[in-house]
């Protein structure tokens, strides 16, 4: 049976699978953010934290990753734990011999206290959670499905900047059809009040009708646009994403839309207010000019990327029962 259930403040994070933003409610998110603030403050003061001393985390990534893999590995080690790491298990593990996902998970749980997995198949994290009898599974991205810990760190970053996640105007741009970070983040934002979301994308990469209807029913105000001239000038957050080449079957289709919308210094002058932030889950592949990196509002290489480690430290501490 799946171990996953709705996370609330009356049901501890301990031993829970983390598969989707749908597991969270508003109090559980605020609880996680509070824990992250404490972990961040202690770490920045140079405090040595050994919350996970004696614990082992297994990281198995069937898809390439720099930030998610690196920040999870660093999070475990900064908390005094150790890791078993597989990148590209199709070549470096018994997956190459035809081992099933379920058998791989059952093997890794014999050696570890938590399994962190990325997989190209939507729904693979749920399969892994159903296969694991003894340890929690953390979804580090499942195809075009979700990327819950990216959404959690993004929400924490916005929360830290503005002191709240209510009453915000947010612009999403890029591949909204296949963007798992977008799918997870919208799920989380729907738990807060008075959120207006502008969806800027090529027409071939708009949010699916099913997802748009679902998010609107959850209370989000969604406005689809297909031209940068229609971008609002009052947005608090620009959340840019790359067009994902790996999701295209036809390379010509990718080439046609890959640089539909690019953040430039001129665009910032024309459309961005002073007290806003520019975010990107990375990697970028040309959709933000390098010159924009120098703008203090561009936080994708500063607080956003650093918060990934702090948020994952807090989440691991809660899931492994070392924090309350």
Compact description:
By secondary structure, this protein is of the alpha/beta class. The chain contains 11 helices and 9 strands.
Walk me through this protein's architecture.
The protein has 324 residues and is an alpha/beta fold. It folds into 2 domains: 21-147 and 308-319, Rossmann fold; 149-304, Aspartate/ornithine carbamoyltransferase (Rossmann fold), CATH 3.40.50.1370. It has 11 helices and 9 strands. The chain has helices at 26-44, 67-78, 89-92, 101-108, 124-131, 148-162, 180-189, 209-217, 251-257, 265-271, 303-319; strands spanning 56-61, 82-87, 114-119, 137-142, 169-173, 196-200, 221-225, 237-240, 277-279. The strands form 2 sheets. The chain has a 5-stranded parallel sheet with strand order 7-6-5-8-9, with helices on one face. The chain has a 4-stranded parallel sheet with strand order 2-1-3-4, sandwiched between helices. Strand 6, helix 8 and strand 7 (221-225) form a beta-alpha-beta unit. Helix 6 (148-162) crosses helix 11. The radius of gyration is 19 Å and the shape is globular. The mean pLDDT is 91.
> The biggest beta sheet, please?
5 strands, parallel
Number of domains: 2
Assigned CATH superfamily of the largest domain: Aspartate/ornithine carbamoyltransferase
Share of β-strand residues: 5-15%
Query: What Rg, in angstroms, do the CA atoms define?
Result: 19 Å
CATH architecture of the largest domain: 3-Layer(aba) Sandwich
Gap from first CA to last CA: 25 Å
Assign the CATH class of the largest domain. Alpha Beta
Strand order of the largest sheet: 7-6-5-8-9
Low-pLDDT parts are none
In total, how many beta strands?
9
SSE order, one letter for each helix or strand: HEHEHHEHEHEHEHEEHHEH
Annotation field: number of helices = 11
State the share of residues found in helices, binned by percent.
25-40%
- The CATH topology name of the largest domain reads Rossmann fold
| Rough outline | globular
């Amino acid at each position: 049976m799946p171990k996953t259930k709705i996370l609330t403040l009356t049901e501890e994070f301990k031993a829970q699978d983390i598969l989707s933003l749908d597991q969270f409610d508003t109090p559980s998110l605020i609880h996680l953010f509070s824990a992250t603030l404490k972990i961040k403050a202690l770490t920045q003061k140079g405090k040595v934290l050994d919350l996970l001393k004696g614990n082992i985390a297994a990281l198995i990534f069937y898809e390439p990753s720099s930030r998610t893999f690196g920040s999870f590995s660093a999070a475990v080690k900064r908390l005094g734990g150790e890791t078993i790491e597989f990148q590209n298990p199709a070549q470096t593990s018994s997956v190459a011999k035809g081992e099933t996902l379920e058998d791989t998970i059952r093997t890794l749980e014999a050696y570890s206290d938590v399994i962190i997995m990325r997989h190209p198949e939507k729904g693979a994290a749920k399969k892994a959670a159903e296969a694991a009898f003894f340890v929690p599974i953390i979804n580090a991205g499942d195809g075009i499905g979700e990327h819950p810990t990216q959404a959690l760190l993004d929400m924490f970053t916005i929360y830290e900047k503005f002191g709240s996640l209510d009453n915000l105007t947010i612009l999403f741009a890029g591949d909204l059809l296949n963007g798992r970070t977008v799918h997870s983040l919208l799920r989380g934002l729907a738990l807060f009040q008075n959120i207006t979301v502008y969806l800027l994308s090529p027409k071939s990469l708009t949010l699916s009708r099913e997802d748009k209807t679902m998010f609107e029913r959850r209370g989000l105000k969604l406005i689809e646009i297909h031209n940068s001239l229609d971008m609002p000038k009052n947005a608090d957050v620009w959340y840019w994403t790359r067009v994902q080449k790996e999701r295209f079957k036809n390379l010509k289709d990718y080439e046609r839309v890959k640089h539909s919308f690019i953040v430039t210094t001129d665009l910032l002058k024309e459309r961005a207010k002073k007290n806003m932030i520019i975010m990107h889950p990375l990697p970028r592949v040309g959709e933000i000019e390098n010159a924009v990196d120098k703008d203090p509002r561009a936080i994708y290489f500063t607080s956003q990327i650093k918060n990934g480690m702090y948020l994952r430290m807090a989440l691991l501490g809660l899931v492994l029962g070392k924090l309350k």
